[in-house]
Amino acid sequence: MTPAQFVQETSSTGEWKRQGNRFTGRISRESSSAPGEGPDEQGRWPVEAGRYRLVVSLACPWAHRSIIVRRLLGLEDAISLAVVDPIRDERGWRFTLDPDDRDPVLGIKFLSEAYLHTDPSYDGRVTVPAIVDTVTGQVVTNDYPQITLDFSTEWTDFHRADAPQLIPADSDTRSEMDQLIEEIFRDVNNGVYRCGFATSQQAYGTAYDDLFARLDVLEDRLKDRTYLLGDTVREVDVRLFTTLVRFDAVYHGHFKCNRQKLTEFPNLWAYARRLYQLPGFGETVDFDQIKRHYYVTHDNINPTRIVPKGPDPRVWTA
To answer: Per-residue pLDDT tens for 122-131?
Structure first.
């Protein structure tokens, strides 16, 4: 069996098993805590503009979701943004893009400092996105699926006037979206990682088949609709987009997801380009940071650390 990129997240049969989210606090309108206080007895932090800092990597698809949703809803003034260096070393995500290699708000050099301040015994992988409380320096949450949902439901007082409704109000449509989100996460969002980080041929083959079977279903779904649930952009579109926009640049070659390129799926490619050209989507994509992160930090997959020059990003706006 080939060496694992992340040993703790690889099973004995070579399957990639993504670690759970350690910090699952919620910032909620229902919190009984006063401004400036910590979480209430149910673990709910108060909604408070200017208090929380969203830590992201522009390379990371999970973090990219939160960047897009924050932009779409107009939460830039309510929730500040910290961007880490795309090159993660053995110490984790670094604030080397900031003066003195230190986040100017949190005062830390590594995101791991906030993790360990919150839980000194934490020994898992430090992940983004993470929301850090600027009052206590503690990590409120690194629960990336919930972060964007809460931006839509708990921060409504700070949404811009024409903010899109990313979560359907209709219960049937919401159920349909939740089912799509689950399938896309399992087979596509996490599926590309299950391919790339597999350490056995069987584990890789299973993930590869699941990935392209799901992409075929989505390709067919998009033959007669603008977005996944019709004519309106929803949360599920954001979640699929952040994988699709990285597909040809990274996953096709680096993660061996090479049955075909995104550009060879007519409906998915047209859909991804439509999203890319909307405000909040393409303007938040940084192909340089995306490629440098994957090709330089995954030593077991790309030991030479050579970063490919292509593909040409101009195809996204053609």
So the answer is: 999 999 999 9
